[in-house]
# Entry
Amino acid sequence: MIKKMGIRWNLRKLMAMHEMFQTTDLVPLLAERGVHLSREQVFRLVTQPPQRLSMDTLAALCDILGCTPNDLIEVEAVNAQVPKAVGDETAPLPQVRRTTIRRPGP
# Structure
């Protein structure tokens, strides 16, 4: 069984709740807390879920927004696969896609 995990990144939503509508609003607030990021880095941080995030940046965001890491990051299962039990009629069947190979003919 393979379970792929995804995250929902709520930084933009939390910023809006604090009436912060421009990504550049975060730059000086992060700098006050010792996190020095360029405007472009902050833009990417706000607009897309980060693949890696330093603990210093996470702590600074939580301090700025008065929230916890759980408010910023929601973990969710994506494309969860469930094995079919013997005799279980309600379990999903695996998806099979058949492919036909055609050779060019004369």
Strands lie at 4-9, 73-78. Helices lie at 11-17, 26-32, 39-47, 55-65, 69-72. DSSP finds five helices and two strands in the chain. The chain has a mean pLDDT of 85.
